[in-house]
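Bench log, entry 3. Co-assembly request; chain sequences pasted below exactly as received.
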Amino acid sequence: MGNSSTNGVDGDGETNFGFRRVPREEHAGLVSGVFESVADRYDVMNDLMSGGLHRLWKQALIDWINPRAGLRLADIAGGTGDVSFRYLEQIENTPDSEDSASQVTICDPNTAMLEVARAKALDKGHIQGIEFVEAPAENLPLADRSADICTISFGLRNVTDREAGLSEMHRVLDYGGHFLCLEFSPSVAPILAPLYDTYSKNVLPWLGEHIAGDREAYEYLVESIRRFPAPDALTTEMQNAGFGNIQHRIMSGGIVAIHSGWRL
Ligand SMILES: C[S@@+](CC[C@H](N)C(=O)[O-])C[C@H]1O[C@@H](n2cnc3c(N)ncnc32)[C@H](O)[C@@H]1O
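Structure output for the full assembly:
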């Protein structure tokens, strides 16, 4: 059941949370607990756990977007705003950035993660054109066709009802709007698999326990990656949600994938 469209939900109303089966209605609260507990150390843990690779993966996402001033970005599961701030910084380096204002919405259901994002926005001087919305992907309080670009980076794995989340992200995109999902993939190249397995099962939870102070949060991370759909299966889910012209790019030997689709 791991790769079903609703995040491994069985007929008995249970779903996977890390290595445990839990009632479906408890899943969002448990995921929330994970990010509540790591919010303060989230950015530093990303660097530590990925050896800085998450920066390259996010840059590849931004390059694929090809940011231009004046567009409306909805960054779903935006967390501490890492993707949004990279997007805005890229726009600041374009010649027309002075002429048209960009609008960025960082949307996340977790108060602690959004608080870190708000503090970072102030720190970086992003006061105007940035909005913070506390909501899950499955139920976005954003108007129909209110975004030109919709991103979800390392977020879709956490969404309890992926089908509803994808359909919501399709709904908020304008016609001709671009959807991009950056996520870990379970389809790691066989040559990397033994090393990656050892790293995931031993090193990551150890780092979680000793650096972030929460072993279970990082066991959840490993297990949620294992249960996430392989790239072709995610393409099918995106098609079912209405996206067209879907392409994906695999990076770092299949450790992560970027999916791109359009609202046509
Ligand atoms: C690994 S963080 C990714 C943050 C950011 N996008 C990044 O790439 O650094 C995952 C985020 O997903 C959020 N999340 C959890 N459940 C969610 C849901 N149902 N809908 C949207 N976001 C969710 C968490 O609160 C957390 O901030």
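Residues 149 and 236 are 20 Å apart (CA to CA). The pocket of S-adenosylmethionine is lined by residues 28, 31, 35, 76-79, 82-83, 108-110, 113, 136-138, 153-155, 158-160 (CB under 6 Å).
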